[in-house]
Amino acid sequence: MSKLDSYHMMIVSGYFNTIKNFINLEFVCKKFNDNMKKFHFNPIPITKFTIKHLPNIETLHLWKKYNENFGNGFIVNVEDGDYEYYEEVNKRKSVTEKKVFYQIIAWFEVDYGTVVKNSSLNIKFKNVIYTKNNTKVYGFKIPQCIGSLQDNCFEKCEKLKSIIIPPKIRSISSGCFDGCCNLSNIEIPTSVISFGNFCFCKCSNLSNIVIPPSVSFIGDNRFDKYSSLSSVLMSWEIKSMERGCFTGCINLNSVTIPSSVTSIGDCCFSGCLSLSNIEISTSVTSIGDFCFNGCSSLSILTIPSSILKLGNSCFCKCSSLKNINIPSTIELIDDKCFSGCSSLSSIVIPTSVTSFGYYCFDGCLSLSNILIPTSVTSIGDECFNGCKNLSSVTIPSNITLISNYCFNLCRRCFDGCCNLSNIEIPSSVTSIGDECFNGCSSLGSVTIPSSVTFNGDNCFPTHTAIIQKSN
Q1: 351-379, pLDDT tens digit by residue?
Q2: Among residues 79, 236, 357, 365, which one has the fewest Cβ atoms lying within 10 Å of its Cβ?
Q3: SUPFAM superfamilies annotated for this entry (predicted)?
Q4: What is the pTM of this model?
Q5: Which run of H or E residues covers position 133?
Q6: Domains plus CATH for the chain?
């Protein structure tokens, strides 16, 4: 205390939260005796009983709607669903004499209608929100005093074509422009740091958008079904792209992901039919489930070595994807990861991979051969189902089961591989699951090692010659 002068103690006391703290401070030592007299505003809510402790107050701060206003009544707009009414604040409080202040500053949230109704009074509102009801009364031009937008503020405003976001706004709220089918231009200031859920969902006429460098977060379904969007310039401060961010943006053709992004969420680019090229930065460590599901034009893709996992159905139905290199950091190729990649003819699988998920390469019609590294111990159900051009497969020696269990080349795994003519089954295999090679019409014969003690139902085509290999 001895090192704090009276001025700096006044600054510190501004963080007190009760009048008792202020009173007690003046008993600490003489240099703090007149601390409360130095305040020309109230740093805490006050009443007609405590205002005497701040004798020089000129500006009254109201932190909550029902703080004492000393006879300086005003009205606040109250919304109840689609209805609204005006409430007179502190109507029931009795003050013997109205106290006049140089200015009154209100910090609690009010809508723009409240600001308009009290425009003749000496009161300044610091936390003004523009609501959906406000848009019906005051139109689509957002006033400069607005600090935030209500959720679904402009939802389904089909007449809205262009809008400028004022510089005080820090967030585009959830569902803010959802269903604004004629919105074609929007100016977003650098004050905005985040986009709310579904904020541009179904803005079918918005063809491009510039995300300012201040934005660090893009969350769920921000541009969902944003059918006209063809290009996106993203902030280099964005850390993550959340679930469904660009889902259904059928005209989006190219995206560069900033180096600040560390994760790409589930379904992020799902259904982006025109997306032909995407650059994933080396900062990204995870690609979520269904991330590029249905990106039928995606033909070029480089997976950086920073990726640790490929999610479920990550590249499912990427029918134009012809080849892909999987980095050595990947241990699991998850369920349906490349299912339906009908043009995929070549894939390099590193020795870091230990398992293939269910239906992993299901329907990869152009895949003619695959080398399964010795690190793989598990291959999921129907992994190569329908790979009609697959003619050669080498099974590593550490696979112990071709069945439905832990280390398996599971049931119907090669079902429908009509060009598969050769397969080597190692002596480590002890069981072959149901319908594993059913439909492999080119498989003339197969040698089964003596280690195999169980063959599942309809395991091989009826014409395939089964040769039992002796020890």
Answers
A1: 999 888 888 988 998 988 788 888 888 78
A2: 236
A3: L domain-like
A4: 0.69
A5: helix 132-138
A6: 6-123 (no CATH), 330-471 (3.80.10.10)
